[in-house]
Design goal:
Radius of gyration: 23 Å
Helix content: 25-40%
Largest sheet: 6 strands, mixed
Shape: flat
Number of helices: 14
Distance between the termini: 23 Å
Strand content: 15-25%
Structural class: alpha/beta
Strand order of the largest sheet: 2-4-1-5-6-9
Length: about 375
């Protein structure tokens, strides 16, 4: 995938910009203690944590021992783009707060990280925030109302086109959008209706906000983090990811050893940010395959279930166009051997065709001719 984008949304002052700053590992967003401190969506491109890359670098060096040149020359992790979007308030669909400008930014992302406040701090103004459940309902209702406005704007033309064309596809498209409209009017997100992939494709042009995958991020106090992590907390029937955005921001200033010690003192082994990024990948049905050469170790993001031909095209269009075969070994097979050359000698590198289903952690070298 050329771009993967997640919009961080929620009511004002719930910790969105603090979370965003932690993701960037620097103070990239303007954080202030009042609503609408974020006027334009701050955009940050963040590395996807993957311990396999460091090990692959070592395996490349094992196969190419040199002292006069850096091996590999560069390392390229998979990337995820986060948008810190201005706080939403009740009435945004009618233009309150930043209104339609805010909602327009959300339409551009692949998925939504919906931050809800579950921390107490008298120094941080509650701008409409009451409790996680009601806060999430306010935001979701504004997303629903925005989508209803969009559908109402175009459904008349769609009905006319269906009468004129009288095609099965146009009739089905009208049927699906009416189904969505009916459920939105009942206060139900389009993502919860259970549309098939074909139905989603039919109404793709509407770019509905409520059809985007969403993860709820519960922002808690540090002293309640361990307790809340042990609980399965549901928001609108979805399990929330519990983090402390302030802790994550503090951790960004630590070196790796300090970070590890601090996490242990909190009783956790993984940062909330790593969990969030991994959850976003799961949410969108994504995985990574890898390429390793002396020049470059690279992680590539693809949809789960992608075939070797599609993976080749993700690396370069010529690889896809002139695909011959793919030489494949999974990272877990390579790990105990620590050398791609030795793995080849042992016959562990397989030759696969264009219809091979790529697995997460596959290390692939493509053979092609153009």
């Amino acid at each position: 995938m050329s771009s993967l984008s997640i919009g961080i949304v929620g009511l004002p002052n719930v910790g969105k910009s603090t979370l965003f700053n932690a993701l960037l590992k620097r103070q990239a967003a303007f954080v202030a203690n009042y609503p609408f401190a974020t006027i334009e969506p701050n955009v940050g491109i963040v590395d996807v944590p993957d311990y396999r890359l460091d090990l692959l670098c070592q395996y490349v060096r094992n196969d190419n021992p040199r002292v006069d040149k850096q091996i590999p020359e560069k390392v390229v992790p998979s990337m995820i783009k986060f948008f810190d979007i201005a706080g939403l308030v009740k009435g945004a669909s009618k233009g309150e707060g930043l209104g339609n400008e805010f909602l327009g930014h959300i339409r551009d992302v692949n998925a939504i990280a919906h931050v809800v406040r579950d921390f107490k701090d008298d120094n941080v103004v509650r701008a409409g925030s009451v409790d996680p459940k009601s806060d999430s309902e306010v935001v979701n209702m504004e997303l629903i109302l925005s989508d209803l406005q969009l559908i109402d704007k175009f459904i008349g033309k769609l009905e006319k086109d269906a009468r004129v064309e009288k095609s099965k596809e146009m009739t089905k498209k009208l049927e699906v959008i009416k189904k969505v409209k009916e459920n939105l009017e009942k206060g139900q997100l389009a993502s919860a209706i259970g549309l098939t992939e074909d139905e989603k494709e039919l109404i793709k042009e509407f770019n509905l906000i409520t059809l985007k995958p969403m993860i709820y991020v519960l922002n808690v106090c540090e002293d309640e983090l361990r307790q809340k992590l042990d609980q399965k907390i549901l928001i609108n029937s979805s399990e929330a990811l519990t983090i402390c955005a302030k802790t994550e921001a503090d951790l960004s200033d630590f070196d790796e050893e300090e970070k590890k010690d601090y996490l242990l003192s909190l009783g956790v082994t993984e940062t909330g940010l790593d969990k969030l990024i991994r959850k976003c990948y799961d949410l969108l049905g994504l995985e990574c395959f890898l390429t390793m050469r002396p020049k470059e170790v690279h992680s590539w993001t693809i949809k789960k279930g992608s075939k070797a031909l599609q993976a080749a095209g993700a690396v370069h269009t010529d690889f896809g166009r002139g695909f011959i075969s793919a030489e494949v070994i999974n990272f877990e097979t390579l790990k105990p051997i620590e050398s791609l050359k030795k793995a080849r000698d042992k016959g562990l590198v397989r030759l696969e065709g264009k219809n091979y289903i790529v697995q997460d952690g596959d290390i692939i070298e493509f053979n092609f001719s153009v």
